[in-house]
Design goal:
single chain, 510 residues, alpha/beta, Rossmann fold, 6-stranded mixed sheet, 5-stranded parallel sheet, 11 strands, binds 6-O-phosphono-beta-D-fructofuranose
Length: 510
């Protein structure tokens, strides 16, 4: 049943009306067990949800909503390999990429065997590159899901990255990016990884061709040694003369692909065992999502909270604040994950929806954000729920720094909630501003894997409740088509049939 037609939706609407004056400070005063009830452990992640605008009744009604919209059945369909990406007629099985070898029977046994038959040579190749002292620079050329995941993970796991190799990520068709990277490289010391699920993306193909031309111009000889392709379209890679290829399958969405061959830069950076640990951490979260009762299922609780905020409390944003500088690309990664998955205005059958879906997601690492936009979060006219991510143990020995960092993240969550009312006017902090606190013990391949899988599944949960297809991305197509047309018109000067503004801009640029 569509979510807004369920009894639970109606009850939640009434509940939201009653909860208009909800004050989380009062909720704490009235309920000494609030922290216990609204916090939980999941694999590698401790979550404190208690500073959010929810109470027992809210969570109970949200669980009713999950049940009435068939969340568990939809989740189980994904894990059975059904073609839940209906608009592209594809299964959704990124989770299979982290499933232990031989652990599934039936129809999934064969794809799982294929996963491992691809993973093993990819990891062996990663080890070969690691052992090849002549390769000092690895350049990943890819965009969107073929860039953000590996880039985020290589940065996040910088303490596990082998010395002696540098990693570069070129995504934009803006030549400043590629030119800037190439400037510091030598052909004989560089490995280019051309990462593209489709091997048709204009940015990636343009960068790949320019990289090949640069390689040849530098006297580079052995293309097989210096170029590898990570793609589902091995044929197109071969047409480009790239013979070292690592494949994956159409049932892996671009933004869900860092566990596949797209993760090769990560595997080179942290080694085969590190990559296996990353997969194992994600798998532990998959099992949690599949088996934990909904009321104690962290992706379910976070996804339902997202629905509550978006549709009932009408919060349109979510801000991510990782208090760890190595997680500085995490907000960008999560932005694609949430907004490309759930930024949909029609249901799975293409019918327009009368309610909101994906929030606007954005953020920066703390404490930097505190000295930039946190002003708005504390005293602005809109309420923006914040998601803090902190890591208990640092990998450096500057203990004072880490204590200060953690003191700041706790203080921010506290300040947003408690506010300050002893002074008026400019110095008044309204408080009662919601936040979620995710805590990792350490930032390791395994904990990063679990954190990312948690985020994937929470996006699944809200998308499932909204009744949308979280696994297609038709909204990116129009711009691609128009860019081709405009490119041709810029060369020819033909602006016939264009709107006046577009024609004038082409004119200005020519
Ligand atoms: O344009 C959007 C998109 O299709 C994303 O979904 C994807 O992650 C990105 O482009 C890159 O696509 P590909 O890996 O096929 O080059």
């Amino acid at each position: 049943m569509r979510c807004d037609q369920t009894p639970a939706w109606k009850a939640l609407t009434a509940h939201a009306h009653e909860a208009q004056g909800f004050d989380v400070r009062v909720a704490f005063a009235q309920d000494t067990s609030r922290v216990q009830r609204l916090s939980q452990n999941a694999p590698h992640v401790f979550a404190d949800l208690s500073k959010n605008h929810v109470d027992v009744a809210t969570e109970a009604l949200l669980l009713d909503l999950a049940q009435q919209t068939g969340l568990s059945a939809h989740r189980d369909a994904m894990f059975r390999g059904e073609r839940i990406n209906n608009t592209e007629d594809r299964a959704v099985m990124h989770w299979l990429l982290r499933q232990p070898e031989g652990s599934l029977g039936g129809a999934l046994a064969e794809p799982l065997a294929l996963v491992h038959a691809t993973l093993q040579p990819m990891l062996a190749y990663a080890e070969t590159v690691r052992a090849d002292a002549q390769i000092t620079d690895v350049v990943n050329i890819g965009i969107g899901g073929s860039d953000l995941g590996p880039q985020m993970a290589v940065l996040a796991l910088q303490d596990f990255v082998m010395p002696g190799k540098r990693f570069h990520f070129v995504s934009n068709v803006d030549g400043h990016e590629l030119a800037g990277v190439l400037k510091g490289l030598k052909a004989q010391n560089t490995l280019f990884l051309i990462a593209s699920k489709t091997f048709t993306t204009i940015e990636t193909m343009t960068n790949a061709r320019s990289a090949q031309a640069w390689f040849q111009a530098q006297g580079g000889q052995d293309v097989a040694r210096h170029f590898a392709a990570l793609t589902t379209n091995v044929v197109a890679a071969a047409e480009m003369g790239i013979r070292t290829t690592f494949g994956f399958w159409d049932w892996v969405g671009g933004r869900y692909s860092m566990w596949s061959a797209i993760g090769l830069p990560v595997a080179i950076a942290i080694g085969a065992q590190g990559f296996k640990d990353l997969l194992a951490g994600a798998h532990a979260m998959d099992r949690h999502f599949q088996t934990a009762p909904l009321a104690a299922n962290l992706p379910v609780r976070l996804g339902l909270l997202d629905v509550w905020y978006r549709n009932f409390l009408k919060f349109t944003n979510r801000s991510i604040a990782p208090y760890h500088s190595a997680l500085r690309r995490l907000p960008a990664y999560l932005q694609q994950l949430e907004m490309e998955s759930n930024g949909k205005r029609v249901d799975r059958n293409g019918h327009a929806l009368p309610y909101g879906t994906s929030p606007v997601l954005w953020g920066e690492p703390g404490t930097n954000g505190q000295h930039a936009y946190f002003q708005m979060l504390h005293q602005g006219s809109d309420v923006v729920p914040l998601e803090f991510i902190a890591v208990k143990k640092p990998t450096h020995s500057l203990q004072d720094h880490h204590a200060l960092l953690l003191a700041n993240v706790i203080a921010q969550a506290q300040a947003l909630m408690v506010g300050k009312s002893d002074e008026g006017g400019h110095k008044h902090f309204p408080g009662n501003r919601p936040s979620t606190f995710l805590l990792l013990d350490e930032l390791t391949p395994a904990s990063l894997g679990a954190l990312i899988a948690l985020q994937e599944h929470r996006v699944f949960v809200s998308g499932a409740v909204w009744g949308i297809n979280s696994f297609d991305q038709w909204g990116v197509e129009l711009g691609k088509v128009l860019a081709k047309d405009i490119h041709a018109r810029m060369l020819s000067g033909d602006s016939k049939g264009l709107d006046a503004s577009t024609a004038a801009l082409i004119d200005q640029i020519r």
